[in-house]
Amino acid sequence: MNKFVIACAASGFALAPLAQAGAQMSMSNMGSMSNMGSMSNMAPMSSMGPMSLPSVSAASPTNVAGLLQYCVQNNYLGGGSANAAASAKGALLSKFTGSSADPASDNSFASGSNGVLQTGNGQSTTLGGSGIKAQITQKVCGEVLSHAKSLL
Predict the structure, then answer these.
(1) pTM check: above 0.70
(2) With b meaning 16 or more CB within 10 Å and e meaning fewer, what string describes 17-47?
(3) How many CB atoms neighbour CB 71 within 10 A?
(4) Ordered alpha helix ranges (H), the chain
(5) pLDDT digits (tens, 9 = 90+) for 131-143
(6) Contact (CB, 8 A) for 108 and 25
(7) Using an 8 Å Cβ cutoff, are 128 and 74 in contact?
(8) What are phi and psi of 41, to 5 degrees?
């Protein structure tokens, strides 16, 4: 590891810009450190805040219903939560579409049932995976269920 990276880490600067710069130029052609620009555009790590779960509050009711289906089918909600999720899904669909049947033509529901949380403003987060992603998905599914109950 070069001395510049160690110095940045020791001083509390974020290393993500370095990773991007490294992707654009290899260590063999870096030449002098002046090629990397100034450190003034790098934020201290303390200003970045902790990682957080994606917000479910902007998801549409039909996206939430689809996500509940995804969470139950993929065992991210178990036991009583799975039963509550199935019930909430039906109630959401009845309240917001007029039918408790899965809305085949609703893109928001379809996205949710495929594990895509639509977080608003055209942004989305894909749930699922293994390891830490599975743990995050399980937490998000719990948040989706809580949000679904608040919509009823």
Answers:
(1) no
(2) bbeeeeeeeeeeeeeeeeebeeeeebeeeee
(3) 28
(4) 3-11, 16-24, 61-73, 80-97, 107-113, 132-151
(5) 999 999 999 999 9
(6) no
(7) yes
(8) -90, 5
